[in-house]
From TrEMBL:
Family: Belongs to the DNA photolyase family.
PANTHER family in alphabetical order: CRYPTOCHROME, CRYPTOCHROME CIRCADIAN CLOCK 5 ISOFORM X1
UniProt keyword annotations, A-Z: Chromophore, FAD, Flavoprotein
Protein name: Deoxyribodipyrimidine photo-lyase
Family annotation (Pfam families): DNA_photolyase, FAD_binding_7
Species assigned in the record: Nocardia amamiensis
Every Photolyase/cryptochrome alpha/beta domain range: 2-131
Domain of life: Bacteria
Gene3D superfamilies: 1.25.40.80, DNA Cyclobutane Dipyrimidine Photolyase, subunit A, domain 3, HUPs
Cofactors (names): FAD
InterPro entries: Crypto/Photolyase_FAD-like_sf, Crypto/Photolyase_N_sf, Cryptochr/Photolyase_FAD-bd, Cryptochrome/DNA_photolyase_1, DNA_photolyase_1_CS_C, DNA_photolyase_N, Rossmann-like_a/b/a_fold
Cross-referenced PROSITE patterns: DNA_PHOTOLYASES_1_1, PHR_CRY_ALPHA_BETA
Length: 441
């Protein structure tokens, strides 16, 4: 009997999953395997919010697999050693895994391939699984190994051929193999999680996707930056953990509508950053473009920024939402990242670390490269742009609804007055005075 292993990583779904489909097609029996990776769980990337989302997504994946005759096999430890051990136990002919982009995942793939080869077991990688396109399929005509500017990338991305979404396997057969029980979040990562965290899993992700595509997407071009409206898809955690397939999502978007096109453009940013990180894994922590910026060291200002007490309500609202939900809308991320790097002149890595601690959707490609974009060390063609928090508040929270939602101390200030509390009778013991001056106060 041919046995294959479908090794799940951040593709936690049964529908449109090239890894599961290929393993099922090849094997008479399949081991759907997930390894709780000690290298990740004990490193800087471990975070209670993502642990919470992950455990829910794993539980649901297990239930989905059981519904088709399988179940999720869980192991914990070193990924290469654990996959090799399972491959030995079930005499697997091959292992299927989604291609990923970070330096760590590229090393993991190489090590797995080598180790499995010793027992004549093949490793097959599948592209267009974690992203909607194969990063290597879309290369610039210049011969470079990645696009350094988004607009030409998007032109190519819009025209590229995408595979059709796959269904889920009808029935799975499992060989005899042991598994750990499903973990609780606390087993994976200690520390407080956000009280209003999204619920992980394929069904929650698919429900959100269906609802989004059936109406709200039409207003995306008009409302995506309107902070009070809360009118973005909130699909990012489901995309990050692969509970929703990016290929299926792109197929569901009507590119001939204004909203559909604007939304697809954001999905293309996601692929763009994945391509860049695949080609330049060091950009996760080193400047993509060296601009010899002299960052300032200001621990007090950084604490105020992290705690949402900078004195600028539009910045503080975003930072408080981050802790409460483990998520922020893109516009709020831009404003708070620009405030830290351009107004306070603090190194983008400090901000990126804080986002990694709290964001449920955090991944190296999108988090680090967006931080670099804002800081001016990344792919922004206008690296010196500064987002003035007061101008941003006027444009994107004109009525002050977002600021009042997240800063209860200021909830009594009507309309746009909430954005300049220093002009009101607000006790600095309740809400602080601005920690720095910006133009337009
Ligand atoms: C400083 C900073 C840090 C960020 N960190 C992350 C991160 O760790 N993980 C992450 O997924 N996104 C990150 N983003 C990008 C973006 O802010 C989020 O993807 C988006 O806010 C998620 O909300 P949504 O799903 O409602 O997005 P929508 O506006 O509905 O967009 C749909 C999808 O497009 C993708 N997308 C949107 N904007 C971007 C972008 N600028 N770059 C890449 N992909 C994008 C996301 O997958 C998102 O789910 C960051 C942006 C900034 C400025």
């Amino acid at each position: 009997m041919t046995v294959t292993i479908a090794l799940f990583t951040r593709d936690l779904r049964v529908r449109d999953n090239p890894v599961l489909t290929a393993a099922h097609r090849e094997g008479a029996a399949v081991v759907p395997l997930f390894v709780l990776d000690d290298a990740i769980l004990s490193g800087r990337f471990a975070a209670p919010n993502r642990a919470g989302f992950l455990t829910a997504a794993l539980a649901e994946l297990d239930a989905e697999l059981r519904a088709i005759g399988g179940r999720l096999v869980l192991r914990r430890g070193d990924v290469v050693a654990e996959v090799d051990r399972v491959a030995g136990q079930v005499h697997a002919r091959s292992v299927h895994i989604a291609a990923d982009v970070s330096g760590y995942s590229q090393r993991r793939e190489r090590a797995l391939r080598e180790r499995l080869a010793r027992r004549n077991c093949l490793l097959h990688t599948h592209t267009a699984s974690i992203t909607s396109t194969d990063p290597e399929a879309l290369m610039p005509a210049t011969g470079r190994d990645h696009f350094a500017v988004f607009t030409p990338y998007f032109r190519r991305w819009s025209m590229t051929h995408r595979r059709k979404p796959l269904g889920k396997p009808r029935e799975l057969r499992l060989p005899r193999v042991e598994s750990l029980p499903l973990p609780d979040a606390d087993d994976l990562c200690a520390g407080p999680a956000s009280p209003r965290l999204a619920v992980g899993g394929e069904s929650a992700g698919r429900k959100l996707m269906r609802e989004w595509l059936s109406g709200p997407i039409e207003d995306y071009a008009r409302l995506s930056d309107d902070l009070g409206a809360d009118a973005t898809s909130r699909l990012s955690p489901y995309l990050h953990f692969g509970c929703v397939s990016p290929v299926e999502l792109v197929h569901g978007v009507n590119l001939s509508t204004e909203g559909g096109l604007a939304f697809a453009r954001q999905l293309a940013w996601r692929d763009f950053h994945h391509q860049l990180l695949a080609a330049r894994p060091a950009a996760a922590w080193s400047d993509y473009r060296d601009r010899s910026i002299r960052w300032s060291d200001d621990p007090q200002a950084v604490d105020a920024w992290r705690d949402g007490r900078t004195g600028y309500p539009i910045v503080d609202a975003g930072m408080r939402q981050l802790r409460a939900e483990g998520w922020m809308p893109g516009r709020a991320r831009l404003i708070s990242a620009s405030f830290l790097t351009k107004s306070l002149r603090v190194d983008w890595r400090v901000g990126a670390e804080h986002f990694l601690r709290w964001l449920v959707d955090a991944d190296l490609a999108n988090n680090q490269l967006n931080w670099q974009w804002v800081a001016g060390t990344g792919t922004d063609t206008r690296p010196n742009r500064v987002l003035n928090p007061l101008r941003q508040a006027e444009r994107y929270d004109a009525e002050g609804a977002y600021a009042r939602r997240w800063i209860p101390e200021l909830a009594h200030l009507p309309g746009a007055r909430v954005h300049r509390p220093w002009r009101e009778q607000v006790d600095p013991a309740d809400y602080p005075a601005p920690i720095i001056d910006v133009v337009g106060m």
